[in-house]
Automatic annotation (TrEMBL):
Its cofactor is [2Fe-2S] cluster; FAD. Residues 3-93 form the 2Fe-2S ferredoxin-type domain. Residues 100-199 form the FAD-binding FR-type domain. This is CDP-6-deoxy-delta-3,4-glucoseen reductase. It comes from Paenalcaligenes hermetiae.
Length: 332
């Protein structure tokens, strides 16, 4: 049994099977609705059901409250159709030239660039070009079927190689990567996913990253450079100590070569022995202190969920940022 979903205001239509979520069905038909985690935890895919019935399945009441359900909202990455539907999704991106695929990838190199971050480069089969929007992520599928998500840190290229920045959080997979992963190891991947990609406007932009949230921001910077960008970009990268900004010098050099970029590194716990006369504190507080008005801006934020949530709240409530212009990927 399948149902029709009419997406407003674009008028696009897709079919959803009874056992598919609305997001899965849209992606399968090459239509990308706004999303990030695909697990019902970040709230990015929340939208209104204008007509018809949905089953909220295992949507968490913390992410989709009872009041929101009563008003007709749903998490499109969890909800399943119980009838034909009309939904409101203001942004629908066509996946032109991009297909979500499952593929094998072989570890090409591992660069343990700091005491807890490894840069892993993966080689994909040359016969299966893996195209994506810079800023998107892919998932590694582990033996037990569980998945981990990592953003691509470069633009897609002819070499069909992906670059991931993996921090050893102490979890089984990230610890294995940091301590034991070897070149030539075969991994299973699925992707690309996520709507953390550059919007084609002329608005100035603020990039905010914490820790390895820098990875997709690096891909965006490379994309802008390749496009001979002229939009001003103010980039902030926060870590506890200088060693957490594991490609700090790369960004310093990149900013020297691209006059549209200003770079502000921010440390929250300057270590004894660090010579640091730069910004200190929380990274999004530095943005608040540098900008009195963000109403004409786009903000792209990636990093820990606390930083991303605080940035979204403070930038919209205190600096007039339009929530529609806040784009985020939170590691969840
Ligand atoms: Fe649906 Fe995160 S809650 S994409």
């Amino acid at each position: 049994m399948s149902y029709k979903v009419d997406v407003q205001p674009s008028g696009q239509v897709f079919e959803v099977a009874e056992d598919q979520t609305l997001l899965e069905a849209a992606l399968a038909e090459g239509m990308m609705l706004r999303h990030s985690c695909r697990e019902g935890t970040c709230g990015t895919c929340k939208g209104k059901v204008l007509a018809g019935q949905v089953d909220h399945a295992d949507s968490d009441l913390e992410v989709l409250t009872q009041a929101e359900r009563d008003e007709g909202f749903a998490l499109f990455c969890r909800a399943k159709a119980c009838s034909d539907l009309q939904i409101h999704a203001p942004e629908v991106t066509e996946l032109k030239g991009i297909s979500i695929q499952k593929t094998a990838a072989r570890v090409g190199s591992i660069d343990r660039i700091s005491d807890d971050v490894a840069i892993v480069r993966l080689n994909l089969p040359p016969t299966m070009p893996f195209n994506y929007f810079p800023g998107q992520y892919a998932e590694v599928i582990l033996k037990d079927g569980s998945r981990r998500s990592y953003s691509m840190a470069t633009v897609p290229g002819e070499s069909n190689q992906l670059e991931w920045h993996i921090r050893n959080t102490g979890g089984t997979f990230s610890r294995f990567v940091y301590d034991d992963l070897k070149e030539k190891t075969l991994l299973r991947l699925e992707g690309p996913f996520g709507t953390f990609y550059l919007r084609d406007t002329d608005k100035p932009m603020v990039f905010v990253a914490s820790g390895t949230g820098f990875a997709p921001i690096k891909a965006l910077l490379e994309q802008l450079a390749a496009q001979n960008n002229t939009r001003p970009v103010s980039m902030y990268w926060g870590g506890r100590q200088l060693k957490d900004l594991y490609m700090h010098q790369w960004v310093v050099d990149f900013a020297k070569n691209h006059d549209w970029l200003t770079y502000t590194p921010v440390l929250s716990e300057v270590a004894d022995g660090d010579i640091w006369d730069g910004a200190t504190g929380y990274v999004h507080h530095q943005v608040l202190s540098d900008f009195s008005d963000l109403s004409g801006y786009e903000v792209y934020a990636c990093g820990n969920p606390l930083m991303v949530d605080s940035a979204r709240k403070d930038f919209t409530e205190q600096r007039g940022l339009d929530e529609e212009n806040f784009f985020a990927d939170a590691f969840v």
